[in-house]
Structure formats: C-alpha cells, structure tokens
Write a structure and sequence with these properties.
Radius of gyration: 16 Å
CATH architecture: Roll
Structural class: alpha/beta
Strand content: 35-45%
Shape: globular
Distance between the termini: 27 Å
Number of helices: 4
Largest sheet: 7 strands, mixed
CATH topology: Hypothetical upf0131 protein ytfp
Number of strands: 9
Order of helices and strands: EHEEEHEEHEHEE
Length: 166
C-alpha cells in the first residue's frame, strides 16, 4: 500500500503514540469487546492477579467504537508505516481495521484507519456479561485519556498484563 496512512486512536493507542487531535463523526465509544483470559495465545497477552500471580478465569473488556449518527468520538490520528500497521493488526486481535478517512473532521493528508470491535470480540463480551465474568483491568482504564472515557458499567479489577511469548 502506498501513500500516507494514519490510525485514529480513541482509547489506549493515543496515550502511547501522540499525534493530531481530531474527531470521528457519526460514532460513539463503548465497552464493547473482550478477550477470554482463560486462553493463553502465543504472541498475545494474559492478565494475572497481582497478589496470587494466578490467571483469573475472566473476560477482560476494552473500549471500541460503533456507528452512532450525530455523535462523535474525540481521538488522535498518528502516522504509521506498512510494518507498524501490520503489527497493530496483530496486536488489535479483538478488532477489525476500517477505513474512516471520510468520517474524520479534519484533512490529514492520507488514509485514516480505525480499529472497530470484531464480531467475535463483541460476542465474547456479551457472553461474559451474561455469565457475570466480564471485568475491566484497572491498568487499562488508567491508561485511557480521562476526559473522553465514560466509566465502565463493569467491575474494575486490579490485574497485571503479561505478554505471552510466541
């Protein structure tokens, strides 16, 4: 793929990357996807209890975005190379990458992508909510820009993120 590419970050990505502040039109932010912490996937992550070191059998929820006419999501667009985009595709396994260039409120001079909760990620969270095992990791919540995040309607739990080797 050639030309300038950017990623619209609306959760933890802007905290890590910086970039140009902008808005995504006709969308809202919500706690909409989850990972199943009972599974250990090589090259991904798990969460452990900081006191016991055990991997609790919970589903950890994350922010996502969804269409919502008339609403907008504040965020940051940051440039990426093809290699960085491929790495984000792998990291953001609970999401699908969508072209949102036409929905950004400023001209950024390139194609803008956003990560939108995948059907599997949304299903995992819906199932976990029904079973009462969905949580938000406190460290993830604290990494989010406070002014743009509504408090989750899920329990917040102290969990430590551990990356799993390939």
């Amino acid at each position: 793929m050639s030309g300038v590419q950017l990623v619209f970050g609306y959760g933890s990505l802007p905290a890590e990357r910086g970039g140009t502040r902008c808005r995504l039109r006709d969308h809202r932010r919500d706690w909409d996807v989850a990972m199943d912490n009972r599974e250990t996937i090589p090259g991904y992550k798990i969460y452990v209890d900081p006191q016991t070191g055990e991997q609790p059998p919970v589903h950890v929820a994350y922010l996502s975005i969804a269409p919502a006419p008339g609403e907008c999501v504040e965020g940051v667009a940051f440039p990426v190379t093809d290699g960085q985009l491929a790495a984000l595709d792998s990291r953001e396994r609970n999401y699908d990458r969508h072209d949102v260039t036409h929905l950004i409120d400023v001209e950024l001079g390139g194609r803008v992508w956003a990560y939108v909760g995948s059907a599997d990620g949304r299903r995992r969270l819906a199932d976990a909510r029904r079973r009462g095992v969905a949580v938000v990791a406190r460290g993830y919540l604290e990494k989010l820009p406070g002014a743009v995040v509504v408090p989750p309607d899920l329990p917040v739990r102290a969990l430590l993120r551990r990356d799993v080797g390939a």
